Amino acid sequence: MIIGLFMKTKICFSFKNVFVLLGLSFVYLIPRIVRLGFDIINIDYPLWDNRATNFFIYLKTFNFIETYRASHPGVSLMWVGGGAIEIFSRLYEHFFQALPVINEYIIFPWRSLFIKLALVFSILFVYLLAAFLISRIFNKKSAVLFFIFLSLEPYVLAHDRIFHLEGLLTAFIFVSGLFSMYFWKKKELKYLVFAAIFASFSFLTKTTGIFAFLFFFLCAVVMFNHEKKILFRKTLAVFLGFVFLFCFFVFMFFPAMWVSPLDILSRMFLGNLSLLETGHSQYFLGNWSDNPGLLFYPLVFLFKSSPILTFWVFGFLAYVLWKLGVVKRTHKFSRKNLKEKVLIILFVLFYVVEISLSPKKVPRYILPIYPPLLLLMSISFVEIYEKCKNLKKYIVIFMFLAVLSLVLTVHKTFPDFLAYTNPVLGGMKKADYYIGNKHFGFGLREVADYMNKKPYANEIKLIFDGDGSIGPFFLGMSRNSTYIYRDHISTADYFLLPYYLLDTDAMYLEYKKDFVLEKVFNVNSYPYWYLFRNVRIE
Q: Transmembrane residues, as ranges (predicted)?
């Protein structure tokens, strides 16, 4: 049904369009697939790997109720990742007559590559759909420029490369919002169906994705045409149709719902409620806090955004304030795509409000506001280009330099994109005080490579809080310091700590006298990982 609707959508597949499509895909893929699977294991990777694997096991054994693995619920990620795992396992079994050992040193990176490639191409497909919609709602120039900026924005790039929820969630929410806008503009059924499909995918990825469902109704309010009579019954039918389609697709793609939908919804609600009540430990303004407050996400945005996006946001805010003053005096303003622009702004504002209501605040939760902001930035650049005819050459040079700066940033930050912080604001050194530099697995491949070069590397015992992020790359044995028995510490060969735990890690402080600093590993030119050697090792 989905493919049928897509094929009925009028898209001109000219050679020029295909060339542009391939070019944009190339720009998007290159920074995402280079060393993919071989460079980083995000902290939650082992968790979602296990969930995705079990998801398909329960699916194949018809134990559908067990496909509920978490309150997130992460179903979309498990479909993509679990499907890739299943295909990889079958291919490996076919060629080697055995099932792959998941954490085996040689096999793991290739298996990880296979999983992440499936995720990257899934997200690419969604963003290509978004670019098509942008070209229809606004113009082709804005669509192309948006796609280039999105492909090179460091924080977006970082999350598209890891096996986690936010990259997929961001793409689904954004394209659902665009389909909602386009439906209320064109009033065609196929766009209503696509809006519902991607809204359901958003919710199935993460419960905060319910925002995509609510945004559909916000679009109805903003896009309402006061000059035309709209029958109440017809509008109500559209609302009910969207709600039905949303519920249908949630039910259709979540096997646990086939067995006990009310029980699953109840478990999701209670699970998320407990997370809301407990908060999440986060470093903010020099202290650890379970609820950093309303300033947290604005600061995260400033420190995690590229300089060009940061400067544009301040410029855009100044322009809006100036424009409001002009409109108040003259009562004149441009109506070109005004409602669509207002909706994009409301998308950003309301999403920030949604994630700010919870005491649990994590930097990556802000990711879904990046595509709409990058879209607004692209639209504004194109409009300036078209209005300032005498300055076109300089505007082109400026945009070229903006893209070049992003390319250089990507090159400099590679492969530790998750550790990226805005250089204009002082980089990781300044970010350490304001939002912290809590590790998410970055920089550990370099540590593992260093350890693997040591004699008898396979016999080395390493203590590290978060061993799942280094274990598959490390030839020796790694243990999590959080769960290890105390009498094992003194027999460990090495102890690895991020800089921010040097003065607070109780286990390290207790056994500090038994270890001596051997090496410091930098992440983006910032001293991050501290490797301590047991004094008994010569």
A: 12-30, 113-135, 165-185, 191-224, 236-258, 295-322, 342-359, 365-382, 394-414
On whether both 131 and 26 belong to a single domain, the answer is yes
449 and 315 share one domain: no
**Domain count of the fold of the chain:** 2
Asked if residue 516 is part of any domain, the answer here is yes
In a domain, 419, yes or no: no
Which residues, 6 or more positions from 443, have their beta carbon under 8 angstroms from its beta carbon?
A: 416, 419, 521, 522, 523, 528, 529
Residue 415: asked if its preceding bond is cis (omega within 30°), the reply is: yes
Q: Give the containing element (helix H, strand E) for 394.
A: helix 392-413
- Do residues 212 and 346 share a domain? yes
SS3 for 231?
Answer: coil
Q: What is the bridge-based pairing of β-strands 461-464 and 477-479?
A: parallel
In a domain? residue 97: yes
Q: Which residues are bridge partners to 532 per DSSP?
A: 495, 517
409 and 455 both lie in a single domain: no
Query: 287 lies in a domain?
Result: yes
**Residue 289: what are its φ and ψ, rounded to 5°?**
-145, 145
What is the 3-class SS of 458-471, one letter each residue? HHCEEEECCHHHCH
CB 285 within 8 A of CB 85: no
Q: Digits of tens for pLDDT over the chain (538 positions)?
A: 544 444 444 544 455 778 888 999 999 999 999 999 888 888 888 889 999 999 999 999 999 999 998 888 999 999 999 999 999 999 988 888 888 877 777 888 999 999 999 999 999 999 999 999 999 999 999 999 999 999 999 999 999 999 999 999 999 999 999 999 999 988 889 999 999 999 999 999 999 999 999 999 999 988 876 545 556 678 888 999 999 999 999 999 999 999 998 998 888 888 777 766 676 778 888 788 888 888 999 999 999 999 999 999 999 888 888 777 665 566 555 667 788 899 999 999 999 999 998 888 889 999 999 999 999 999 999 988 888 888 888 888 999 999 999 999 999 999 899 999 999 998 888 888 898 888 888 889 999 999 999 988 888 888 887 767 888 888 888 877 665 555 567 778 888 988 888 887 777 777 778 888 999 999 988 899 999 998 876 6
Tokens, residue 463: 């203590």
| Number of C-beta neighbours around residue 2 at 10 A | 10
Same domain for 392 and 463, yes or no, is no
- Residue 234: is it exposed, middle or buried by C-beta count within 10 angstroms (0-12/13-18/19+)? exposed
Asked if residue 287 and residue 240 are part of one domain, the reply reads yes
Helical H segments across 254-337, by residue range:
255-259, 261-278, 296-304, 307-330
